[in-house]
Write a structure and sequence with these properties.
heterodimer, A: alpha/beta, two-stranded antiparallel sheet, B: Rossmann fold, seven-stranded parallel beta sheet, binds flavin-adenine dinucleotide
């Protein structure tokens, strides 16, 4: 039972990212980078399955520049057995990323692919669904609970109306929601050990994916600032303002 | 001429109000707008759809398989009618997010998610980085898939139309798909969170699920929906579908009341477009006050009962 975990390098979620001076892109020059929180959750779920004796190997894969090695080393320190970096200096869009992941899938033939539902940078929420479409594997998004029984899974999903449970045969694709688990931290000995775990590298071209990047970013701006409001003295004052000033109640 | 296909979202009983906003967005792209409806029973939806003045045709796929939403089934239908269209639109609800990227992947289209503004037929605005930035993006594709952030668009007029219903055969693609087991849907008499006029939300400051009920009386008096921060949902004070924010729902009511919520960027991402924001927090330094029109620095356990009695 082999599990593939795509890992995205993004800004640390505590950092407020701003546009660059020219308003052509975001300014990430001094921003701390990290593993996308949803990918961390995906990896944690795989590690738990392995600890429970239900999985044997966890492979982490990233698509991006050389710096993605940092996030893959983190994944290895957390519990991935080996890692693959598919290199490109271009910033790929979800459709291109999913095509790269399909190539990795075909090489590795994992039984399960668990990935974050969204990157906290681009907020696309697409790659898992596109990957599942292109591999024709069952698609189960926004998971908050995963149960693996032999070669089938039962997954609870968070949907707008509440919760929904789906079951599926393996191989399948799961995307993770926040409440699936709470990821662990890497211990120092594991960080040291991770340095010796295998990290294979390919280029996007070597895998035979033609990058399309059909969407161009023309401008990146800060959203309109809200004017800072006023402090009210007490509940009476608040009720009065809501009734008589903005007339919303 | 630009042809647009909108995915009708519904619960087999009534149309989701999100779809009315998606149609509004579609109207900004062109006036040749059709609907695709996959349902287990069209009868209760039909009258509602007949009120949609800007819809020309409705592709109807009616079958028991649509009792529950399996993305694979719906995407097969979208593919079946896709030839004629330049744009495919759905809302950025969990349904739209589940279905549209799968469709886009099969069509080899790079989707644009969470559109908040249509600048022109190929240029769109969308929030990135939890709403910390707004990107203006341009597509070079001839066919495009958009998901629409419905809080940024009004609803279309629904005062009578004459859409033509076209019954379509159910595609029998043998795709490898999951099966439905069960659902646990939250039942509530309150207005739906994403379309309510007033939303009252609680955070970690509420301390436990019993205290969270302090919001009930106020919500009832204001006819408000109840929302929550991630911390409140994670701690089990409120169900997951109450979560407002980057990973939860986007809301933009006339009045948003944040109680015991600090105002993390991920929470603000889902509510800072509300018209009037009220924050009740005992920490006067809490970042939520930076976006609040009216801030009350107070212990919520004193403020809430008093507020309820004075409404
Ligand atoms: C990838 C990712 C996605 C996320 N998505 C979301 C999301 O969609 N939505 C979301 O909300 N969060 C999200 N978060 C979490 C977010 O970062 C914050 O952790 C969360 O919003 C905090 O919730 P809170 O404000 O209720 O809790 P806290 O930050 O703990 O704030 C509690 C507040 O209550 C106040 N308080 C305490 N007691 C009282 C009292 N007696 N009276 C008055 N005030 C009191 C405190 O002063 C404090 O300001 C996400 C985080 C990550 C990493």
């Amino acid at each position: 039972m082999k599990i593939l975990i795509p890992i995205k390098r993004v800004n640390d979620y505590n950092v407020k990212v701003r546009p660059n001076q020219a308003n052509t892109d975001v300014d990430l020059s001094n921003v701390k980078m990290a593993v996308n929180p949803f990918c961390e959750i995906a990896l944690e779920e795989a590690i738990r399955l392995k600890e429970a004796g239900k999985a044997t190997e966890i492979i982490a894969v990233s698509v991006g520049d050389e710096k993605n090695q940092e996030q893959l080393r983190t994944a290895l320190a957390l519990g991935a057995d080996r890692a693959i970096l598919v290199k490109t200096d271009e910033s790929l869009q979800p459709l291109d990323v999913s095509k790269v992941l399909v190539k990795v899938f075909e090489r590795e033939l994992p039984n399960l692919v668990i990935m974050g539902k969204v990157g906290i940078d681009g907020d696309h929420n697409q790659t898992g669904q596109m990957f599942s479409a292109l591999t024709n594997l069952p698609q189960i998004t926004f998971a908050s609970k995963v149960e693996l029984n032999g070669d089938s899974i039962e997954v609870t999903r968070e949907i707008d109306g509440g919760l929904e449970t789906l079951s599926s045969n393996l191989p399948a694709v799961i995307t993770t929601d926040l409440r699936l688990n709470e990821p662990r931290y890497a211990s120092l000995p594991n960080i040291m050990k991770a340095k010796r775990k295998p990290l294979e590298e390919f280029t996007v071209e070597e895998l035979g994916v033609e990058v399309k990047n059909t969407i161009t970013t023309l401008k990146v701006e800060s959203p309109p600032e809200r004017e800072e409001g006023v402090k009210v003295d007490n509940v009476d004052d608040l009720v009065d303002k809501l009734k008589n000033e903005v007339k919303v109640i | 001429m630009t042809k647009i296909l909108v995915l009708a979202e519904h619960d087999n009983n009534s149309l989701s109000s999100a779809t009315l906003s998606v149609i509004k967005a579609a109207e900004m792209l062109g006036d040749d707008i059709d609907l695709i409806l996959t349902t287990s029973n069209i009868s209760s939806l039909e009258t509602e759809i007949l009120t949609l003045s800007s819809i020309n045709k409705v592709h109807v796929f009616e079958d028991k398989i649509f009792e529950n939403e399996i993305a694979e089934n719906i995407v097969d239908c979208l593919i079946a009618v896709s030839d004629d269209y330049d744009f495919f639109l759905a809302s950025s609800s969990t349904s739209g997010k589940n279905i549209m990227p799968r469709f886009a992947g099969l069509m080899d289209i790079q989707q644009i998610s969470e559109v908040i503004e249509i600048v022109d037929g190929s240029t769109f605005k969308k929030p990135i980085y939890a709403g910390a930035c707004i990107a203006t993006v341009k597509t070079e594709q001839s066919k495009n898939v958009l998901t629409i952030r419905t809080t940024s668009f009004d609803k279309t007029t629904a005062d009578g139309g004459s859409p033509e219903f076209i019954k379509q055969d159910i595609p029998t693609k043998n795709s490898n798909k999951p099966t439905f087991v069960k659902n646990e849907l939250t039942v509530s008499d309150r207005p739906e969170l994403t379309s309510a006029d007033i939303v009252v939300s609680g955070g970690r400051g509420m301390q436990n699920s019993d205290n969270f009920k302090l919001l009930d009386g106020i919500a009832t008096k204001l006819n408000a929906a109840i929302g929550a921060s991630r911390a409140a949902v994670d701690s089990g004070f409120a169900p997951n579908d109450y979560q407002v924010g980057q990973t939860g729902k986007s809301v933009a009511p006339n009045l948003y009341v944040a109680v015991g919520i600090s105002g993390a960027i991920q929470h603000l991402a889902g509510m800072k477009d509300s018209k009037t924001i009220v924050a009740i927090n005992k920490d006067e330094e809490a970042p939520i006050f930076k976006v609040a029109d009216y801030g009350l620095v107070a212990d919520l356990f004193e403020a809430l009962p008093e507020l309820e009695s004075k409404l």
